[in-house]
Write a structure and sequence with these properties.
The chain is an all-beta fold and 119 residues long. The protein is 0% helix and 38% strand. The protein has one domain: Rieske Iron-sulfur Protein. This is Nitrite reductase small subunit NirD.
Length: 119
């Protein structure tokens, strides 16, 4: 009888978001650095900005800054205000709540916030 050695299964944790009715794998969790954003292109051509906060919680919002039209929110500065995580646009500095997409500096403006999970 010959012993068979099996390599341990290696499964990488993926960041998934739900842009519609189904979950979509976007990138490996290992590609995210706490406090920094990463842009990803969805199959329908939209761009999302992915973030991982310092506690390891993932977030995803539209990457398009509604004030300028530029796809730059993934490059913004991550912080928190009143315990709420936000990203500040690198262009005009408006802050967007990472959980809701609402602009903290102009309540009439928001970006789409996506449901996100690491699986």
């Amino acid at each position: 009888m010959t012993a068979t050695t099996l390599a341990p299964a290696t499964t990488e944790v993926l960041i998934q978001l739900r842009p519609a009715d189904e979950w979509l794998a976007v990138c490996p969790l290992s590609r995210l650095t706490p406090g920094r954003g990463v842009a990803a292109l969805l199959p329908d051509g939209r761009q999302v900005a992915l973030f991982l906060d310092r506690d390891g919680v993932p977030y995803a919002i539209d990457n398009r800054d509604p004030f300028t039209g530029a796809q730059v929110l993934a490059r913004g500065l991550v912080g928190s205000a009143a315990g709420r995580p936000f990203v500040a646009s690198p262009l005009l500095k408006q802050r967007f709540d990472l959980s809701t997409g609402r602009c903290l500096d102009d309540e009439s403006v928001a970006v789409t916030a996506y449901e996100v999970r690491a699986a």
